[in-house]
């Protein structure tokens, strides 16, 4: 048989300025590219395994997990395949089908899927709605009180630390206190924060924390982090009855290959960049202020933004699309001419983007490019 | 904080002749190293995703999955994180806690863990025991009959196509017929076969098939293949109620990163090498015959071997260990001096190894090296 042509290249996304928020935090530093080269082949991290991935001495996965635990202030760390697999494992270990989990109204679809795959009911804490979409500890307390009054038990409280729609940074400590006061375990989804901003699991009363290596930790996907406090270790890291050393929720072992080598190589880089998170936020605020100089552009979500993922309403760009011969594609095409990619093709009414990791000059160039495009079509927009 | 030194290099295993069976089938061809470079960063295969990984047009994951389906003769294919995650997903989708699965006595620990994590009971079909450890369709039929007589229902029949202890190739078609006759769905674990030897899922009455990219398909881990026949697609590939396009057992998507790019790049190479499987088996038989010229060395499992993974009893090498100043480590060290690695340090009584993918000259050199070591210590062995 003959294979189709799969177009296995990514030059466009690698060589242009990519504003896709999904891709900004996963770019590998050079040392992780080197690790990828070393550990390219198959089960490359398993050469010195004596039965447990998390205890492999060479490369020192055990040492890395200790460092990670310190980095996010949690007792135990395992790698999983991603944030969603971490959430699934926690729910699978501590909930029974039919149980109820409480999640924020901005939760990622993968939180819903992890619950649904486990047969759980989802109750949502509503956000404040348009335009801020804010999630608050008070909202959690109210919803919990209502459920309590209805006699409904809650098995797990889940909070999206930073959501993927608005980049709102929630008050994890506040929600942690509410959950703690109610005696319900608390799972914090840090897919958009761990590796970008500081995470203080213990300080925030977090029982379980998940992160996403490919999303925010400069690692090759798929890989995620699952952090567990001591109190829950026996349950979440339960061993197999038959194969004594193997952890059941990990199916023995998880990241048996290159992605963990890239995450290990990236950890020093992550420690460093998390220290400079303020600079990233400042850069994004500058970007927002420049973008908002363009007619009608407005950042949605909590303001001023506290994260690099920003969502803009762009009615002016949309009005151009109506009259442009290339319709909605003009924006993508004009940006691409300027070596900017990552805004979805055809999207003009609103978009999400991020300038995380770009230099001040690049951010200036990007904002200027949008302004230039707006100017160019000033006549046909309204 | 400061990170420990993780010793992120794999030079020893990359640059020497590595006999570890776990590593032989996962070595990347050059085109897959190139793909790894292209798709190093984070969520690199998600740039053109419209909601479903398996439908991504660029790189053409959809085209690749069609080709894979053809390669293993199955209706639907998804990538999963590995063979174990594929087995877990199948059991999760079609069994209820408390159900019984029938597995062979040579099953991999991950089959047990997949069942245990799903709360299933395991009934085993015994092998013929030492020295062949053969698994037969008759054994499956007998065990099923016994269970039937006891009024015990079986929800799933699982067979390890090639086991990881003896490299025995089982009669998948025969077991498929037994399962089919009994009206029980049949899951074939091809972790050690898919990507090495031909797989004919439909021809063998297989309902579900799993493969391991990092083990036998020249891919960077973690990645696996899950094949499903049409009849079961609705159950295994069930969509979320809330997020209509997302597949529940996949948690939306699985291999969102570099490993799938390496597997895609490797498929033409796999098609090619599977065609030459006979040559590999011949090479291994030659290797076994050379090894068995060494005093007391004997291949265990079905003979002549039908797979590259072979297990040797090596009492002579063990008798040397008793008297050697370096004890059991001498064998590892003598081999390493000859640029051969992959036999566990300290192991001399028996070992598993594979010469898969080595040239005839290399195989000759490896066998000759073992003979040379035996000769060197002829005096102190018995
Ligand atoms: C808030 C949030 N959580 C979870 C995820 C999923 O992360 P992963 O791919 O690691 O499962 C995402 C990814 O988009 C996200 O934005
Ligand atoms: C027979 C068999 N099945 C399954 C596995 C596990 O494969 P994976 O790592 O893809 O889950 C192995 C790996 O050693 C194996 O030998």
UniProtKB/TrEMBL annotation, chains A, B:
Gene3D superfamilies the UniProt entry points to: Aspartate Aminotransferase, domain 1, Type I PLP-dependent aspartate aminotransferase-like (Major domain)
InterPro entries (alphabetical)? PyrdxlP-dep_Trfase (IPR015424), PyrdxlP-dep_Trfase_major (IPR015421), PyrdxlP-dep_Trfase_small (IPR015422), Sep_Cys-tRNA_synth_arc (IPR013375), SepSecS/SepCysS (IPR008829)
Quote the Pfam families the UniProt record gives: SepSecS
Q: Which cofactor does it need?
A: pyridoxal 5'-phosphate
* Sites of N6-(pyridoxal phosphate)lysine modification: 215
Q: Identify the domain of life.
A: Archaea
State its Enzyme Commission number(s).
Answer: 2.5.1.73
Q: What does this protein do?
A: Converts O-phospho-L-seryl-tRNA(Cys) (Sep-tRNA(Cys)) to L-cysteinyl-tRNA(Cys) (Cys-tRNA(Cys)).
The name this protein goes by in its record: O-phospho-L-seryl-tRNA:Cys-tRNA synthase
* Species whose genome carries this gene: Methanobacterium subterraneum
